[in-house]
């Protein structure tokens, strides 16, 4: 918009000239016209065409086959090798519960699960909050055999052992 006083070009919508301060003429505001229609007089709106919604089936997940632990609270699966040390905050661990809910109740090196002759055993490694198998507290250094469906409790974390 051009100033009528000094002929300076100003930004559109400016109220005063940037150069001389003269009040700029304002364009007349536009008036919106609203027309009220009686809903009974309005033409009916046709319904939208039907949509063909075809659900896409996700491919079934192949269940893990092999010895593993399942975290009861989340369903997380931890695969077991022939020897797995369980704890937290240690990159050398095979199963690290750092960051898991109640993971703070697990010792840095809490327990170890080993496969001896095709049979799995769990051993408490001197943990502060103990290791339990089916509610029975293990003594430190005691290797206890574990079977399908056994519940292992480490601090406040509960896991279920599965052989396959």
What does this structure look like?
The chain is an all-beta fold and 164 residues long. It folds into 2 domains: 1-29; 68-162, Tumour Suppressor Smad4 (Sandwich). It is built from no helices and 11 strands. It starts with 67 loop residues before the first strand and ends with a strand. The strands form 2 sheets. A 6-stranded antiparallel beta sheet has the order 2-1-11-10-7-8, with no helix packed on it. A 5-stranded mixed beta sheet has the order 4-3-5-6-9, with no helix packed on it.
Q: What is the H/E order?
A: EEEEEEEEEEE
Biggest pleated sheet: 6 strands, antiparallel
The count of domains is 2
Strand content: 25-35%
In helices, the fraction of residues equals under 10%
CATH topology of the largest domain: Tumour Suppressor Smad4
Low-confidence runs (pLDDT<50, min 5 residues)?
A: none
What is the typical, i.e. mean, pLDDT?
90
CATH class membership of the largest domain: Mainly Beta
Please identify the structural class as seen in this structure. mainly beta
Please give the radius of gyration in angstroms. 36 Å
Order of strands in the sheet with most strands? 2-1-11-10-7-8
Number of strands: 11
User: Quaternary status of these chains?
Assistant: single chain
Question: Span between N and C termini?
Answer: 80 Å
User: Shape, please?
Assistant: elongated
Number of helices: 0
Layout of helices and strands, plus pairs?
Elements (H helix, E strand, L loop, with lengths): L67 E4 L5 E3 L3 E5 L7 E2 L12 E8 L2 E6 L6 E3 L2 E2 L5 E3 L5 E4 L2 E6 L2
């Amino acid at each position: 918009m051009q100033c009528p006083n000094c002929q300076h070009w100003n930004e559109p919508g400016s109220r005063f000239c940037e150069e001389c301060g003269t009040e700029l003429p304002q364009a007349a505001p536009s008036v919106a016209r609203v027309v009220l229609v009686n809903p009974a007089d309005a033409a009916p709106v046709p319904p939208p065409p039907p949509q063909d919604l075809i659900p896409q089936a996700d491919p079934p997940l192949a269940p893990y086959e092999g010895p593993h632990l399942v975290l009861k609270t989340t369903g997380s699966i931890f695969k077991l090798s022939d020897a797995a040390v369980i704890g937290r905050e240690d990159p050398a661990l095979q199963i690290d519960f750092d960051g898991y809910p109640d993971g703070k109740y697990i010792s840095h090196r809490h327990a170890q699960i080993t496969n001896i002759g095709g049979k799995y055993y769990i051993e408490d490694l001197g943990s502060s909050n103990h290791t339990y198998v089916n509610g029975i507290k293990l003594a430190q250094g005691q290797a206890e055999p574990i079977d399908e469906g056994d519940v292992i409790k480490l601090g406040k974390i509960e896991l279920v052992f599965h052989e396959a």
